[in-house]
Amino acid sequence: MTRLISALALLLACPLSASAAVFFVTNTHDSGLGSLRSAIDEANAAGPGAHQVRFDGPFPQDGLVQLGSTLPTLTAAQLTIHGNGYNPRIAGNDTFPLLVAASTLSRLELNGLTLSSGRATDEGGGCLAAHAAGPSSTLVIQNSRFDNCAVVQTSGWARGGAIFWNFGFVTIRDSEISHSFASTQGGTQSDVASGGAITTHGELLVERSRFITNTAIGHVSRGGAVTTTDSAVIRDSFFHDNFAFSTATPGRGQAGAVLIDCVACDAVLERNTFTANFSDWAGAVFVRGNQDINRASLVAHNNTFHGNEGALSAGALYALFVSASLVHNTFHHNLAPADAAGHVYFESAIVENVANNVFAPTAGGKACMGWTIEMPGLDAGNLAADGTCGLLVPGIAANAVLGPVEVDYSPAVPVVRFAAGSPVIDGGDDKGCLAQDVLGNARPIDGNGDGHARCDVGAYEHPLDDTLFADGFEALP
Ligand SMILES: [Ca+2]
Ligand SMILES: [Ca+2]
Q1: How far, in Å, from the CA of 177 to the mean position of ligand 1?
Q2: What is residue 388's predicted lDDT score, i.e. its pLDDT?
Q3: Signal sequence: where (predicted)?
Q4: 174, 214, 278, 404: which has the fewest C-beta neighbours closer than 10 Å?
Q5: pTM for this model (two decimals)
Q6: Other CB atoms closer than 10 Å to residue 427's CB: what's the count?
């Protein structure tokens, strides 16, 4: 035993990271000593260990690394590329992908980088591609931006305009993906564009991130910003102006912002806001299990859906073969044809808790449509502007004039705020009251000044002295 303990002590004294090495990027050159390309070559050749490519002085603040070709394929088993506060901007010229990972790479972290103008012309990933990523591989993106990244295919699948990570675990934190697109130009059912910003077939975690103006465009298009075929947790994030646009007639677009398409997986949406996203089916979010006995679970808490459009149906949310819990969501001014679902469409869905949601007026279409199996564990505190959400649970009747609203785009996650006097304010049911609202503020607050702190309906908990309408609409940052 003593010998074993001694051996363990020796192991602890020589951690595996002892072989880790740091390679510095000190200039903006495309190649040569001190360049990003050279540092990646060195990391690839360094053998086992958690290596790091790190920007450091005299690399200029916000320095632009203008690439003339794809960077060396990432072959190190574990690699971090760290901007180290210099905010390096790594750019292509719209003709080649920027970063490609080999199957040997098991963990990649990008921290504090901006990547732009990458183009893939194979399966996907204009700025970061890991076609061969395995089921245990990990991608972590933090404090980074992707802009104008794309995959453009003449036919077949186009997956992940900015990022295609085949399998494994993907985490995106405190980052932004914008103006990226997945495009395929064929005209058949097998020409599928997926995930204008990212496609992964692994588990996805997104926190405090923004997805702005990303597009999937093809005969079939799915997930204007995000497509995953495994479990996903998306929280504290903002999706605006993403499109899944189909060139087919009638349209075959699904999920303007997020598609979670899986068998028996878990979809968690917490404290997100979806505005001005578009597709044919599900203007914002589509969650789909694959059959009745393998339902996906959907937990949607404190989300706001405003101004999204489903050209055929489901202006905001489509849930198919899903077991769903909806608490404290705000649906407002989403759009679909008059005989279709302006806010939500539930099909063969088990509806569990439905509490403290506000189904405010649509911009067109009925608030709720579809076919559900009702089994509410909790049905309380919902407000609806029309009577159609009795589909979810029969207790939801048309019950309120909810009053005017304003969309405040100034928080990182924008909010829909109702005017003073709205029944939304202090109108919730305490049984369904979540501890925080969409901004992470504690509930409940006495929002109507009667001395009783009660939970509001919807995603936002209004303070008593809300400055609503005092300063007009905020410009989108
Ligand atoms: Ca309140
Ligand atoms: Ca009150």
Answers
A1: 34
A2: 94
A3: 1-20
A4: 404
A5: 0.94
A6: 23
